[in-house]
Amino acid sequence: MNWSPLTAPSYVFLYMSKYKDVDRKLKFVSQFKFFKSKLPTIFIATFHLQKMDTPKELMKTIWRKYSLLYFGILFSSPKSILMTYHPFRDEILNTSNILEAGNSLANYHFTDMNGVSLKAVIFNSLPHRLWMKLGLVNEDWELWTNLVKNLNMSFEKTFIRQGFRRGMQMLKIGEVDFCPYLYFLNELNSNLDYIAPYGVEYLVALVPQSKKIHQSFYMFLTLSPTFWALVCGSLISLIITAIIGRRNKRGNQYIIFAFVKTLCNQSVSNISSLHSYHILLINLWQYASLLILAAYQVSLLKSLLIAKYDQQINTIQALKSSNLPIYIPIDMKTKVEISVPLLKTQLIPLSYDDIDDIIFEFDNKRRALILMHSTAKLVIEAYSRHSIDSSYHIMDEVITPGFSTYFFTKNSPYVNIFDKMLLKQYQHGLESRYTFSRRTSSYNENTKLTLNHLQGVFFVLLFGLFLSTFIFTLERFQMRYFCSKGD
User: Fold this and answer.
1) Where are the transmembrane segments (predicted)?
2) Are 288 and 236 in contact (CB under 8 A)?
3) Burial of 285 (0-12, 13-18, 19+ CB in 10 A)
């Protein structure tokens, strides 16, 4: 038989001499990691098959208790018979051909669902609307289309206009099988099932963008305290040098030339005739000027590459102090109230339809919205794609962490199947789980400057500083050597 890399199965064989051995052995192997991946398990029965109803009830019990979908019982006497359980049709499948037995278990439960129809509830969710506005392919729908195609299944779509809450209600009562949209899991719902977390995500706040500070003013804000300390120290040394120069006017001319050369980043020489105090202060001035030059260049780069805003809202405390109304999807309100009680009085729950209308009203009203990080990024991208001057940015401090997943009807056998298929795709690099960053900004120009952005530039500046200091030190030793030789 030809298996694809995604569907090639591995087996766990368990021998049993009586029916009660199954439960005991399952408890033993369930503590191992390989059991968690739902590997196909074959029980080798070493006793005679007496009644057909007994193994049928046993397999139903195993499936309900352990969610063990891929398993069968192989009876070797009086003839070889493999019995497997199909939970979707609630029937036992068996074959007397030992070669067909292995193919049946592997093929039937891993690669071919024989055209089973998967009922999906489709509604015009906020992420879906954003994908449409951006003219992009809906990644969620594309993922499930490929999975269903690989399993030889088909879709039976149910379109509704009521949105998320109505879709979840249809899942609870069993009208549909699953919802093919990624959602933030707020709490464990006993009436729904979901696959393993697809993405670790965070709820973030979209807050109004503050007024941008002009670059000419921002230059002074980016200068570090080290820069100003060096400037003050250099000015003090200059004043002391001037005072000493009044007492020793003969060296004033050389001192002036030395300072001019230092400001021009030139080496200072022929100062052996100066007073030792002059030489010491000039040396300090040279060291300070090199550091000032490096600090100034770094500040200049920061002012050119980072957009600075006046009193920007980037923390939960700042959001609380702003007294802005905070609009939030109604199903996420309880989780935020528990996680961040500080914002409880500002939260205004709305439906996803109302949230969508608020985002694209462009009325410049000051308000905040709480959304999933992935959805918030789509909002910012939608503004950028339509050449609209964004009135929102994503707050740096996150509201609360969580994870995204896909929802299914309670006790749905599809959960195990899709978990297995996605696991295989992850292992072969065909699919990836998402982990969304804690800190983000709305535009690239707002990204905080680090060595990752200008690593080469900073290293060049740092290397130049060390090289200049090294050459300067060599000149001092050379000057002292000739001075001592002249004496």
Assistant:
1) 217-244, 277-296, 454-474
2) no
3) buried
Least confident of 168-172, 306-310, 363-367: 306-310
Angle at 249 between CA 246 and CA 250, to 5 degrees: 160
- Please spell the DSSP secondary structure of 418-472, one letter per residue: HHHHHHHHHHTTS---EE--S---SSGGGSPP-TTTSHHHHHHHHHHHHHHHHHH
Within 13 Å, how many C-alpha atoms sit on residue 145's CB side?
Answer: 6
Whole-angstrom Cα distance, residue 378 to residue 327?
17
Name which of 58-67, 149-158, 311-320, 407-416 the model is least confident about: 58-67
Contact 27, 57 (CB under 8 A): no
Tokens of 258: 């030395």
What is the longest distance spanned by two Cα atoms in the chain?
120
Report d(CA 306, CA 368) in Å as an integer. Answer: 23
CA atoms within 13 A on the CB side of 487: 7
Contact 74, 81 (CB under 8 A): yes
Nearest CA among 155, 153, 185, 154 for reference residue 168: 185
DSSP 8-state assignment for residue 209: P
Helix (H, G, I), strand (E, B) or coil at 227: helix
Query: For residue 317, what are its two tokens?
Result: 């405390």
3-state secondary structure 117-151: EEEEEEECCHHHHHHHHHCCCCHHHHHHHHHHHHC
Round to whole Å and give the CA distance between 204 and 372.
Answer: 6
Share of the chain above pLDDT 90, in %: 0
pLDDT band at 6 (very low <50, low <70, confident <90, very high): very low
Q: In sequence order, what E strands does 270-399 have?
A: 326-329, 347-350, 368-372, 392-394
Burial of 114 (0-12, 13-18, 19+ CB in 10 A): exposed
Angstrom distance (rounded) from CA 326 to CA 43 = 57
Residue 485's H or E segment, with its range, is helix 455-486
Domain boundaries, the chain: 12-110, 215-305+455-486
Neighbouring C-beta atoms of residue 297, cutoff 10 Å: 16
Distance in angstroms (rounded) separating the CA atoms of residues 381 and 211: 20
> pTM of the predicted model, to two decimals?
0.51
* Separation of alpha carbons 438 and 314, rounded Å: 12
Report the C-alpha gap between 68 and 323 in whole angstroms. Answer: 52
